[in-house]
Amino acid sequence: MAGAPYDQMSGHIWFNGEFVEWGQAQVHVLTHGLHYASSVFEGERAYEGKIFKLEEHTERLFFSAGEMGFKIPYTQDEINQACIDTLEKQGLKNAYVRPVAWRGSEMMGVSAQANKINVAIAVWDWPSYFEPEERLNGIRLDLAHYRRPDPATIPCFAKAAGLYMICTLSKHAAEEKGFADALMLDYRGHVAEATGANVFFSKNGALHTPKPDCFLDGITRRTVIDLAKARQIEVIERTIMPDEMADFEECFLTGTAAEVTPVSQIGEYSFTPGKISKALMEDYDKVVRAHLDD
Questions:
Q1: Is 159 noted as a catalytic residue in this protein?
Q2: Beta-strand relationship, 250-255 and 198-203
Q3: CATH, domain range 132-293
Q4: 3-state helix, strand, coil in the chain (%, to 5)
Q5: Does residue 163 contact residue 203 with C-beta atoms inside 8 Å?
Q6: Whole-model pTM?
Q7: Distance between alpha carbon 279 and the CA centroid of its chain, in Å?
Q8: Where are the domains of the chain?
Q9: Catalytic one among 53, 159, 171, 278?
Q10: What does the pLDDT look like over 127-178, one tens digit per residue?
Q11: Is domain 6-125 given the CATH code 3.30.470.10 in the classification?
């Protein structure tokens, strides 16, 4: 997003239990999280002052830390409250919320049992990317070179920093070609996900989405599945081969940042954003703002 570099933004960051000035939220260059990717994080959205599905995000943060072999030195309730307090401290209503936990600099090497576990929470302004009608035009995706790895090789269900490097490479490559993002296959050659969002396809009134057996089962993904079922739309979680994309009618991505974003093209395959995409976009917008009617 355009604007000041993230280290030069203003306000406060919750850092190991207290608020510090934004520019003072620093770590040492020899922190283990930087060198060995021993870091986990969450991406959350606040809508009109309330963080959507905060508890589920915090539960996943703690799960991810466990998968990475470390323990967050706070309770889930304390992290939930810290997220709420940071949002209030920043004085924002519609915002992005980023909790992150990482191993510190007490030991430098692959082995790091004695390293302190640090936790920070940053909140910044995050308006909607597009108006609903603009989003309905659909974004264009390239096909990524890198694939989601075999679960035997990585802690694939953790939202861990190191797992996103191939996503960055894939998104950069796609953007250089004029695409908005890239679709990644998994290690078996099955359709998996975009670089930071899950993917859905529609055919004959039903939704088809890959089984999340080697990548994150996104919180937004689960929310959209529930919304589709509430509309009596059949949702089929299954293996999807790349050449099947030729037969699908609609396609959209789901994620905290993407929300529900229609797709018009993936590589050589084209889609027409339509009724299902529009309905679920509208339903998702209603559910994230449902508290406004409380």
A1: yes
A2: antiparallel
A3: 3.20.10.10
A4: 35, 30, 40
A5: no
A6: 0.94
A7: 22
A8: 6-125, 132-293
A9: 159
A10: 765 556 667 889 999 999 999 999 999 999 999 999 999 999 999 999 999 9
A11: yes
